[in-house]
Design goal:
By secondary structure, the protein is α+β, with helices and mostly antiparallel strands. Helix 8 packs across helix 10.
Amino acid sequence: MSTVEYQDRASSIGWQREAAEQLVAGRGVIVAEFFDAGCSRRLSWTERPQAAALLSELADPKLRLDAMVVGEYERAFSGDQFSEMAPLLQRLGIQVWLPEAAGPVEPGSLEHQVLMRLLGAQSQREVLRSRHRVLAAMRAQACEQGRFMGGRPPYGYRLVDGGPHPNRVHAGWGRWLRRLGADPVTAAHVRWIFARRLEGWSMAGIARALNERGVPCPSHVDPDRNRHRSGEAWTLGTVAAILGNPRYTGRQVWNRQRTDRDSAGPGGRREGVVRRWNPVQEWVISERSLHPALVSDEDFLAAQTIRAARPTRAVQPGPGEHVGQAGRSRSRVLHRSPGGTPGAGFAFLGDAAGCPQSSR
């Protein structure tokens, strides 16, 4: 069971145990149970606590286990994991029983070899297909509905009720949507930051002024969601992140970042999970404002074009770029799409930052 927050442990164990018992009924007895919770099947068996414990017991000659029974192929294996495990299990004299094989898998059977490859490909296809559907739905919800897609509220906002869930079934369960609302304390600081930037202040100067005024920084205000940060003071990077966030215009923004899961290497071991920023052309911005704006469209766009004073070195900006923060970094300019009316949307470097079919 990989998604512990969305599944009931007892129910998941129950149906898998029932499938395993039906498979071996009259031919054997289940004497031990191993159940990993919160572990992706993409992990190798040695990286799953309970799976690793099972391998250890299978290799123990004192226990004299004959076979292992799996309630469903996808609960134990993904991709080529079965073919990688098969030689080890053969050496230990352990059979693998699967419902899909209607009993023990026969290593020498061509039919079973083809079946295992098919099940491995199918398990990967299931993941890719589900991922594509979820991402496509999230893109449409963010663009067309301006739906809050989760995550930490930006500094200056807090989560408030957004009305009953549009899905009748979910609404019947009493579920409500969540949306962003202006925070009564921190929203004023965001407006102050944009006002100072439009007056020509440098980002470093804004950060210094906030610290001198004793304004708590974002990670200090919300330590539970920022445990990876110190919460000690405002930094230039914090100010830059606020000034470059289009969500302060009242529009919902999604897909600014992505999660890269490195492919399994030899033995199924992965390097880790990494968060990376997407190019601005891939950001999805809602067609209209859905939550209170802390800065107008015009002021937000103007803030993106202001250069920091006295760059320390000459930097030749590329097309659609401007030099900022004393020449130390580059950032793309956010342009208003043709029409220029409030709610007309934005375009990044001439590309529509919203629905692909949009003609704004």
